[in-house]
Structures are given as C-alpha cells and as structure tokens.
User: Fold Xylose isomerase from Roseisalinus antarcticus.
Amino acid sequence: MIHPDRIAAANDTAEGRLSADYEALGAHLDRRGIDIAAIKAKVAGYGVAVPSWGVGTGGTRFARFPGPGEPRDIFDKLEDCGVIHKLTRATPSVSLHIPWDAQPAADLNSKAQEVGLTFDAMNSNTFQDQPDQALSYKFGSLSHTDAATRRQAIDHNIACIELGRQIGSKALTIWIGDGSNFPGQTNFTRQFERYLDATRTVYDALPDDWTLLTEHKIYEPAFYSTVVQDWGTNLLIAQQLGDKAKCLVDLGHHAPTVNIEMIVARLTQFGKLGGFHFNDSKYGDDDLDTGSIDPYRLFLVFNELVEAAHNPDFNPMHMLDQSHNVTDPIESLMVSATEVQRAYAQALLVDRAALAECQEANDALMATTLLKAGFRTDVEPILAMARFEAGGAIDPVAAYRASGYRAAVAAERPAVSGAGGGIV
Amino acid sequence: MIHPDRIAAANDTAEGRLSADYEALGAHLDRRGIDIAAIKAKVAGYGVAVPSWGVGTGGTRFARFPGPGEPRDIFDKLEDCGVIHKLTRATPSVSLHIPWDAQPAADLNSKAQEVGLTFDAMNSNTFQDQPDQALSYKFGSLSHTDAATRRQAIDHNIACIELGRQIGSKALTIWIGDGSNFPGQTNFTRQFERYLDATRTVYDALPDDWTLLTEHKIYEPAFYSTVVQDWGTNLLIAQQLGDKAKCLVDLGHHAPTVNIEMIVARLTQFGKLGGFHFNDSKYGDDDLDTGSIDPYRLFLVFNELVEAAHNPDFNPMHMLDQSHNVTDPIESLMVSATEVQRAYAQALLVDRAALAECQEANDALMATTLLKAGFRTDVEPILAMARFEAGGAIDPVAAYRASGYRAAVAAERPAVSGAGGGIV
Amino acid sequence: MIHPDRIAAANDTAEGRLSADYEALGAHLDRRGIDIAAIKAKVAGYGVAVPSWGVGTGGTRFARFPGPGEPRDIFDKLEDCGVIHKLTRATPSVSLHIPWDAQPAADLNSKAQEVGLTFDAMNSNTFQDQPDQALSYKFGSLSHTDAATRRQAIDHNIACIELGRQIGSKALTIWIGDGSNFPGQTNFTRQFERYLDATRTVYDALPDDWTLLTEHKIYEPAFYSTVVQDWGTNLLIAQQLGDKAKCLVDLGHHAPTVNIEMIVARLTQFGKLGGFHFNDSKYGDDDLDTGSIDPYRLFLVFNELVEAAHNPDFNPMHMLDQSHNVTDPIESLMVSATEVQRAYAQALLVDRAALAECQEANDALMATTLLKAGFRTDVEPILAMARFEAGGAIDPVAAYRASGYRAAVAAERPAVSGAGGGIV
Amino acid sequence: MIHPDRIAAANDTAEGRLSADYEALGAHLDRRGIDIAAIKAKVAGYGVAVPSWGVGTGGTRFARFPGPGEPRDIFDKLEDCGVIHKLTRATPSVSLHIPWDAQPAADLNSKAQEVGLTFDAMNSNTFQDQPDQALSYKFGSLSHTDAATRRQAIDHNIACIELGRQIGSKALTIWIGDGSNFPGQTNFTRQFERYLDATRTVYDALPDDWTLLTEHKIYEPAFYSTVVQDWGTNLLIAQQLGDKAKCLVDLGHHAPTVNIEMIVARLTQFGKLGGFHFNDSKYGDDDLDTGSIDPYRLFLVFNELVEAAHNPDFNPMHMLDQSHNVTDPIESLMVSATEVQRAYAQALLVDRAALAECQEANDALMATTLLKAGFRTDVEPILAMARFEAGGAIDPVAAYRASGYRAAVAAERPAVSGAGGGIV
Assistant:
C-alpha cells in the first residue's frame, strides 16, 4: 500500500497551486452566487464503486496484453482497489464478481477492512463456463431451454446472494449474455418467459433490504438478439418481479445515437432506476474510461441525477465498469472516479430555478446555456481540495507514479504472458 | 377509374404464364407438404391500409418534386386509392389525416363507397401549424408547457375521433413531433407528465370499441429528444392509459441496428401491439417503399405475426406509410402492398412445428434454415393468382401503365410546380 | 443595426466581473506556463463565416415555424449578419446561397460594406427546382442521366462563380442531393462518371486563386445512395479534378459513430482539406448549433487544426451551417460562433510538446489527460475579453436581448405564417 | 473424410425432388428468356475460399464454448475444409493464418493435395503476442512508434509471403488492430505515416504476380481510432503503394447504415477492389454467417460484381470470414458457401439491358423491380444441381449429419474445455 507520507510529500509540491486555484474558483463562483464550500461538501460525500475485475488488464476477443503486476486473486485486487481509494478518496467500495472472486467471507471481510473498503453489489456470472460446471451456458443460462441449466444458473445467483449477505452487500446485479446469433434460433417470447420464471426464483431468494439489478445490453456476446436488449425489456422485468427489482444502466449498452439521459429520466420517473455502470463508448460496448469520449453526455446523465435528487427515496447505485486495455488499470480507475465526480460537481452548479423558468418559457437557447455554464466551469480545484482534505492526493496519478507501487507489485506478482482472446 | 376490361385485357396476356408458374409452385410446395390453396386463401384474405397522403408525391426538407396529376384533395386521393385496390385487391381501406382530409362525413362515405373502400385509423396532426390555428405547436402540442396549447391539441384529437365515428373508423393514431433540439430545453419528466395527462383526456373520449394507437419515433422533427422516443416509452403510455391504448410500430422509427422484430414480439407478449406503419429505411426515417431495402427484415416481422396468430385476440392493424419522392405514388403503393403480402405468404410457409423443435434443441443452423426456406420461396404466383381470382391485375404495374390513368388525371388536375422544403 | 452605445451600456455592467475572471484565468494559466495574452490574440484573429440562410428560421420536412422579423431578402439577411458580427466580432464574412441571394453585385457589395462584412464561399443550389427553371433536378443535377440537365447545373455553378468574382469571394462550394432512393435506380459507376465530367467543367471555369469545395453527405435527400456519400468519394473527386479542388467537411454528414477528427487528419495529411461546415448532430444531419450536443468532438476537430497549423499552406475555410428551428437565429449564430472560438482556444492550450512525448511513449492516459486539460479550462474570459477589446459585447446574447433588435425588425418585416414542410 | 458412397446414398433420396424442381425452374426461367444451363455453368465455376480458422469454434471477449471434435492443428483444419468442399464443391481453396497454421510447406502441400484443396491468400497476425515474440504489439505493430517493433511486424509479413510462395498462394492479406483507445493517444498523421512506411517494405518484398490486400475496419480491437478505419484510408494505402496493392472489403467492418455495395462500386471503378471477406452483421463486426441477417445486401454486392464482370481484368478474391460460436463450423461454412453462390446466381438472373434502360430513363420503380426479380427467384435447384453434377451433396448439411463425421473426429480429437475470452 501507499504510505501516507508519500501522499503528503506529493501534495506538498501541489498545495500552493491548488490553494490559489481553489481561491480563484471560489471567488468566481461567489460572483455567480454559488457557495464553493457547499459544492465541495457534496463532492466529498460522493463515492463510486470500483469493480474488482477492473484492476486487471482487460482484453478483446482478439487479444489481451497484460501489464506488469497483474493481480493474482481477489486479495491482490482489493489491495489495488485500496490504493485507488487511498489516493482519490472517491471509491469506498468494491463490487465482486463470482466465481472469480469467490473466497471465504471472513477472508474477504478481513482484507477489505485492512484496505479500508466495503462491498458494493455482487455480480454473478452465467455467461462463461467454469471448469467444474455441470451444464454449459453455450446456449443460454437463465433463459436456457433446458430446465436443469436454468436451475444451475439460479443456484449460482442464490449463492452470490448468500456470500453477499456475509460481506455486507445489499444488491445483486444480473447481466447475462443469453440471446441468439441467427434469426429463428430462439423463440423470443418463450425465451423471455423462461428468463422471467428463472429470475423470479432468484428474486424470491433476495433479502428484504436487497435490490435486484438487471442490466440490459443491445448486443454482444449474442449478435442477432439479446434477451434483455434494452430498457424497455428491462423495465418489463422490474415491473414483473416487484419492488426490489430495478434497472441498471450501463452507459455503453445502447444502440448508436440513443439518448441515454432520457432513459435515465424515464426509469427515474417510474421508480425503476437502480444503478449505473459508468464507462464511455464511441462505437459499441467499448468499455472505455468514463468521460473519455463524450464528457458532456456524462454530465447530462448527472444533470438528471441532480434533478431527481430532491426525492429522498432516489438513491441509485454508482459503479465503474470499464476494460483497461492500454493503461495501468489503477490509473484509469483513479481518473475515471474523478471524471464521475467532475460531472456531478458540474451538474450541481446548474441554476435549477432559472433552468425551470427557461423550460417553462421555451427559451431553448438560454436553457441550454445554463447547462453549459455548469459544464464548462473547471471544477478541478473543488475535486482536488475535497481529496486533499480527506487525506487523498491532490494529483492522484502523479502521486501514484511517484510511489513506485506498480513496480513493487510487479516484483511480487508473477508476470503473465500475452494471450489471444476468444477467437483462437 | 380503371375499367375492368382494361384489367382483363392485361391479364389475358399474362394468364398463361401465371398458370404455369402457379402449377409448378403448387407441385413444389406439395413436395414440401404444403397446400398452395390454403396459403392462397390466407393471402387473399389479407389487406393493408393505404394512407391518404401516400398518393401525393412526398418530399424532404430540401425540396419536393411533384409529378403529373397530383391529387388536389381527399376525393382525388380516394380516387387514386381506389385504383390501387382495384388492381391489387390488397388495400381495402384508407387511413385519413386530419385536417388535410377533413370533409363532411357524408361526402367521405359517399366517395369511399363509390371507389369501393372503407376507412382505417384516423390520424391527427399537431406537428404543423394550420392557417386558422390559434396557438402554435412550435414548442410542442400534447406536451406543451402551455395548458391552452395542450387543450387545443386535445380538442383536435377529439374532433378526429368524432369524424372517424361517422365514417366507420375504429382507431385513432397519434404521432406527435414534440421533443427538443437542445439539452436542457425541456424537462424530460415534466414534459412526459404533461403528455400523459393530455393523452388521457383524448383516451377518455374514445368510444368503447376504438383503439388508441400511439407511435414512437427516435428523432425528427425534434433532434435532441423526442417525447415518445422508443417502444419503452410507448409501452409506458399504453400501460398508463388502459386497455384500449396500444403501441404502433413504424418500421423506420428506431435507432440504427435495433432488432425490430424483437420489439414486435415483446409488445405482442404483453398485449400492447396495436399496429404497424410499413415502410423501409436504410439510414433514418427514410420512408422508403416497404421491403425495398431489407426484405428479410420485413419477413422476420411477419414471422412474428404468424407466430402470434394462434391467439384469436391478436389483431394488429396494418398500414403502409411511405414517402414517394421519385416514383409514381400509385405504383409504389401497389408494389408495397404486394411486398407486405409477400412477406406474409413467405412467413406462412415456415414449418413451425419443426422450427419449435429446432429451437428447443438449440439447433440454430437448422432453425434459421427453416426460416430461410420460407423466405426464399418465390411466392409471386400465389400473390398473382389471389389478385387474379379477386378481379385484380396479375401484374398491377403493367396494367396500370397500360391504362393511361396517370395521363388522364394529369389532364384533369392542375400541374403543381416544384418547391423547396422546410429549409427555405 | 445595434448602436455602439447599446453595447457599451451592456458591457458596463459586465466589465467588472470579466476583469476579475480574466485576471484569475491569466494567473492560473501563468501557473501552467501559458501566456493568456498570446491565446487571446489568436482568438481575436479568428473568424468564422455565417451562412446567409442561417438567419432565417429553419424547418424540417414536417413543418417550419417562423419567428418574428424573418428576413425578406439578402439585404435583410446581411443586416442580421451585421448584428452578429457587431456583437461577437467573430463573424466577419457571409456565405451566399444562389439563387436565393442572387442580386446585382454592386448592391451586395454596397450593403456588405454598410454592415461591415465581406463575402465568403459561394454556394450553388441544384437540389431544388426554381420557378423559372427549364429542366427538373428531381432525378439529379450534375450527375443526371440527361446531358442538358447536367449542362443547366454546370451553367448555374459557373454563374455562381461569376457573381462571386464580383463580390470578392474566392471559393465555390458544391453540395448536391443527387443519389437514389432504390437499389438499382442508378448505376453507381456511370452516375459518378457523369458527376466527375460535369464538375470538371465547373472546375475549369474557376479563377486561378479560387478553391472548389465539394461536400460529402451520407444521406438525405437521397435515401438509398448519394453520389458524394463520404470522404473517400470526396477525396477521389479532389484528386481527379486537380489542385484547386478540396474537400469540405460538414460535421453532421457522416454515418453514426464515425471518427470525424480522423477524417480531418487524413484530408489534411494529403493536402485536401478545404473547409468546414460547423454544426452538431445527435442522430442524422440534425444541423443543431455547433458544440451543443458533443462539445468535446468539436474540440477534437480543432485539436487537429491546431496540430496542423505549423504548415503555412494549411488554411481551410470555416463556416457555420445550422438550421435554427426553435431559437432566434441571431442568438444561435452568436452562441455558435463563440463555441467555435471556444474549441479553438481550448485546443491552443494543449501542451503539444508534452503530448508528442506521451504519444511517442504510448502513455495513453497522460496523452488524453493533456487534451482534457485544454478542454476543461474555462476560456470564456479570453473570448469575452477579445470581444470586448474589439468593440463587441461581453455577453452578446444579453446585449442583443437588451437592444430590442428583434422587435424592431419584426415591426418592419411582415409576419410569415407557419407552413408544412416537404411532406404535404 | 466422407466417403463418396455416403454422398451418393444421401443424394439418392433427394435426386427425384431435385430433378422436378430443376425442371420446373428451367421452364420458368425459359419463360423469362433465361437459359438455366448457362446460369448453372457459371455457378459451377464459382468458388469461395474457406478460412482455416473458420473450422474451429469462435468466441467473444466474454467466452468461447468449444464443440466436440475441435481441430487441433492445420492438418485437422484442412481435413475439415476438405469435407466442406467435398460436399459443396464450392470451396476449392483455404486461406491460412500465420503463425497459427505455420508448418513446413511440404507438409501443407501434401495434406492439401490429399484433401483436394489449394491455398488462397495468406493472412499475417500482428494483432496478438505470440509466446516467443520479442516485442509486444500492445501499442501497435506496423504503425508502432518503435522502429524495432515495426520491423518485427514487417519481417513476420515477409515470412508469410515466403511460406505462401512455397504453397502456391498469390496474395497476402494484412489486417492489423493498430489504433488507439483514447483521444490523443496517437498522432493520427504520424501513425499513418509509419504504417505506410512499414507496409511499403512489405509491398517491396511481394513477388510480381502477387497482390497485397489491405483490410479496413472501423473499430475493434481499438475503440477510439483505427489506423485503417475505412475504405477512404484503404484507398490511400493502395494508391500510395502501387499496382499490386488493392483493398479488401469485409462486409462487417463498416459504420452502421453505410452503403457497402457502393463502396464496392467505387473501388471497382478505380481499379482497387482486391477481394472480400464475406460474413454478415447486425450490430458491429458480428462475423455472423454470410447472408443470415440481410441476404438482400449480399445480393446487392454480387449485383455490383456481375455488373463489373465484363472487364476481363476484374477478378477480386472471394473468402468467407466468420466466427461460428453456436453452430458446427463445418455446417455454417457449407451453408455460407451456398449463400454466396446463391447471391451470385440471383445476380446473374438480372436483366442488365433492361436495367440499364430503366436507369437511363430514371424509372426507379422498374429498375428496382428488375433487381428484385433476380433476388426473389428461388435458385436452390441450380445450386443443388451444380453440386450434384460435380459429385457433391444435393443437401450438404443433411449428408454431413448423416455421415457421422463430427462424432468420428470427436472420438479422435481431445475435448477442449470452455474458457473465458479476453476479459478475464
């Protein structure tokens, strides 16, 4: 782990500049009638979960190019996640993926406590076959034509809940790859009926204070049809299952050009927005770093969240979900956590009373200018000051690079050689 | 109108070839265990509505290039629609658009009877301002921020119902252009609340045996957000309003790559598929002739319809909705009616028992081959024979061209000069 | 026109805040090693052309909803364009569209001088039929199968050049709608051969110091194929015609998800980037205000332009091209000119030496962070100060609204009633 | 291998029906003035290459689900390819992928002769790291910033040529994954310069009678930019390198909605169409079975090829390139070879003289009807008869299933267990 002295040393050189920038921004916001301290307090209270699998190098179906010091298991992963939170103070929890991270609850809890983290939503996996698995998911899992295969998938999800209970998780996220590659391969209706039946059984096993998050995705790994292909189907699922069932929105899982912030608004309006997987995409489910391609879209999503925040029951879960193919995963996750905070801070700056007036008066130009006024404000000093005051790094990437952490773990953890993806 | 003798003369030359083709196809289908006469009977019983506006030349925002003999009013349009049905025997009804076609019910009924047609769904128009209109729809209609404007739109829709009752229509189709062109211009949630409120008032004015069809569209004329942007929102509308409210699917109104046949299946499964606007698209809402770009997609939609047909309550409405920019609209509509029939006939040929078995066994290759076996069968002889036996033309376009109808109406109806579209 | 006193009065109230913001930004940039005055000087020297048609309210194929005070002719349009430049100091030239703006050169020159503007590229129009036109463009213009129609289109383009010479223009922009709506309607190859032949005749009539800009567009008004559908075909045109022929990139004319900044880089690399039509889009050719949907994409385009600026021969033309359907066109154009300047200023802030080092070292995270450091800087004080020092308004929209200009012209210019678009 | 007696036995039961269908189709085509024997002869002369990697089960980044009897090496793969050709008589050659298939030329030649196949284009691989590889392709290969890495990639390509010479190949296909995942990660221009330099070195090593095929792809595995992203860049490459360099078009490598047949026409017109990778896609590079999603699009591509066939120098290479994730790869490849033949046969049926007349007269409706007349003809009897007469199976899938080949090789070849894709 990174020693606090390291962080303090890195902050020493940056503190003067930060103070000047923060003071100037405070004065500027004051001229706009905004109290910088209030914004900073909200930012400081914000956290986004890190996915355990995100600290390993990702890959494509063509190849995976590992980096030095790849985590060997969930304990290494928690170590890496701890570093991210230590430096950013923005990622207090980790989301586990089972069976990849399946370990005794006591060991998980102990390690989490050691690195100062808690556990977010549990993620089940019925889109791959595991070595010891009786029945294959080649043709589906929760929606498989074979009842025994569905049962196997149900049991796995219930096991995830069981482990989750022991480590303080409060949600299960189900994403499946079930679908088809050919017109006619499946009967859309019967397949969805099977899905609903199976998922209801999982739902029934859910503790009262848990949420079931189902995740839609337009395509991949299925390339003609996917059972939970969009928010319409996802909404139907949540409606059919009950109050504890809500929809998870992954920003990269929609058709080209779709207005995602509007989907966020619709699900919010009908009480079915359960959470997010933040990332960014240019083409398909690219799983790029959140805000790296279209930062304004991310802002517009947060604009909806701030808009809805007056409702005390509105409390969707926030998680990063990215594939880090060409960067150090720890660096990408630190920057991404910051980008999510940034969008949040910018959305907080929007003058909502004035916006409502413009909307009522159909003053489109002024309404959009109000959003832009929030978006184009450089809130970096707020984010940095919030980190600094919480003991984190003013510049997390610089502090991380200076710390030598990657080299240190690379010395401990065995090198992994490059490998082809799914196509070979 | 086209005299039956004309049709008979055209058929005379084509009949021999048709008989040979029909007989050969009958023999072939017999080898596949299919009774050609049964298929022909279903095709003969199938009809698709023609939109009154479809017989005029369409245009884009850049220009409209009228052809000779453009219809001057709804009576000319009904005349043209009569020709289409006379030749194809596949388009027994016409869908009116108000106020374009607003005329005394008695006159409409009388003309319809004269040309042998009935009236399909009524279409309201709150996406344009009419010369005598009190309030503008520039910033919306049923979802406008101004209550008086919403009321005006509601009243217009109720007037459409009233006229529809008098001419035997049983459905009102609502498509609105409401949305926004800038992030922030509208509050998604409040806009949708206003839409639901206003539309509920229209719904409440609906006779018991009527259906309210709402139509979703991803974009255009609004270019950042649209109130009823996709089937998810459309489904919410139908759920909120009640049993008489159903969703209309226009094949050109979806995001790129979206699996439309799956949407058809989902709406069917939950009892909310109300009807179709058939057309084809390559890029956006191109309103091209149905089946002209991707005929297999059209077939896959009909595959769902045939799959669902065992349910006696399943009875969605079928309508063409195209913009004919470079063809004689009558020719395009005749060919399009035939293409819809073709997809239906091909879907009827699919061996559904075998398909269900393949699906159950996850035999993807054989399942898709069974669909293709239906699709690649050349059912033209079945369609032609059904037309012929019903008094229509074996080759409608050839008969139409031979008839001189276009030249005749061009002599009667004044020429319309070319004009710019919305951009000038 | 807006009196300078008006502007001065508006600036009086804003100047104090601007000074404070500018000073603070100067201090911040100084801490980053950047001289704010140098950036301001470049911004002050930057201008973007306004399209004459942009000051009228746009429309869609469904409808056009005019606003008060619509310009009646090119002289009204120049008046409006003068206001935009007066307030923003960023739009020194106007691009004409013929025949919409065809007037005696002397009158155009005199009016332009009066309002303080010059003339940018000439735009021809062979995508609409004009009342007095001998042959129709319904089936194409420069690529029409009929030689006389092609000749008519050629002659029109040559007439545009002729008028342009008399008013100081140095470029002709050709955008045509030629294409097809059905597979098979045209022979792709012969159609393109005809296009190249016809365009070569126009090219040959070009003065030596002129540029011919051809513009690609994936679709609309043609919905199956378009002759100049993408930059590949556009490049072939420029290669075939010669050195004076270059490609114009309209940001809204590409397929979904396409990387536009990369096209800019490729055309630049091969000496064929001729100019831009700036606007923004979410779905198709939405012609929304530039930077209103994806401001980072606009920044990335300017990042390429700044990257290429070391080449003294690199001098593409910059023009806005938008459709203002729901805003006051003058306001939209003022904001848009500012947005283009903003992207330019942000791109100027990127540390290019550090960027090149990161690129060489494959430090993807730091490279993209360097771009973001430019993008997220709030350069508004630089833009505002540049305007202010040049006699423009610190807040152009506020000054414009305060001026009462729109009400004044609405009193003079007759009201235009709402009208349907191309579809009726 | 499958014994001819097996095929004969399977054909015995199908021959009667085929004869009847073929005779009926012959009579029908005769009524349309088409000689069925001439079409059959062209179909019989047509062949499409099979990719060696296509006979293994494919996968996605999420998982790969192998089937029984997966080929262990290139010799097993050639065995499987031999079966495909034996049954379909449509796949006379195999395209190798190096290093996956790198084996002594003598062994390859001997095995190919044994199974009755020849070798098509060679495919290099610089998108993965191999165990014994000195330098990583994580950040690129032919366009890498490091000269030694580029040299390694060049040498590998030259080695592919060398092996290809010894086994009778006449082409090298280069597809690389080089690109970037973040704005700013690479300098577009310098990266492309490096690519051109490196590829020129490969080109210079090409024998005189060889073709260099470069393949464009919009995205994946790079998710922000790809060096050879579209046909425009691909064309530039072919232009820069010389006459032996041509463009390869993979049907799944384009942006959504792009008109691929038009790209085929453009590259043909300028002498730069080198070959195809046939497959189908609904969303991204789905690598689905060719013709399984949009068979009309495949037909329209072949329509261009038949249109261009009058040029004796026009001879692009044809290859399948698919990922078979849920089917028996041998079955998918047999069906796909048939689909390609089908599109070719249908395109041959188009009345080109009549089509040219309609195009000249702008008779869009009749022109497209002429294409449809070819497309909707069920040419299966022609394909089946061509296979039958050449010693293949009338119904290849039925014959294959009856043969027990899969079970036989599954008994010989060790089972492969399911595995995650690139993401774990």
Chain B touches chain C through 56 residues (CB under 8 Å).
